[in-house]
Amino acid sequence: MRLPLLPLQVPLLLLLCSTPAFSFTGLVVSVKDGDTIEVLSNGQTTKIRLHGIDCPEKRQAYGYRAKLATAVLTFGQAVTIHPHEKDKYGRLVADVMLADETNVNHILVKQGWCWWYRKYAPRDTVLEQLETDAREGRKGLWVDPQPMPP
Questions:
Q1: Are the C-beta atoms of residues 83 and 23 closer than 8 Å to each other?
Q2: pLDDT confidence of 1, banded at 50, 70, 90?
Q3: Is 44's pLDDT higher than 90?
Q4: pLDDT at 19 > cutoff 90
Q5: Distance between CA atoms of 112 and 102, rounded to whole angstroms?
Q6: What b-and-e string marks burial along 43-53, b requiring 16 or more CB atoms within 10 Å of the CB?
Q7: Catalytic status, residue 57
Q8: Is 49 marked active-site?
Q9: Which one is catalytic: 38, 57, 85, 128?
């Protein structure tokens, strides 16, 4: 026997269905810029915005290098997507993991190709430390004494 949903259960059910909570795997088929990729999974492409990082835009200094770093790490690779939310552009904001469990978001900050995005990951102490280390080591965009954030 199936019980009817109570009025309070319906909004909760809708919220749970619309929240991107489930991890999935796919193949990286496009790198849009340093912090945005497209993943093919189950015959459908999904734009992924890497969580907690902010890379220079394409036309900014280091923008091409950030995109290239992301492409070298991910293009053509099978990745696991760990979603956080959807952004205002409809992209899935997520952590991206390589097959060996390497966190792509972390590697890009560690190599100095992006900033820790404090506004959207304010308590991420791992990203904070990786950015501090990259700054001190003058890696990537941190060779510039005052790199311009996007």
A1: yes
A2: low
A3: yes
A4: no
A5: 16
A6: eeebbbbbbbb
A7: yes
A8: yes
A9: 57
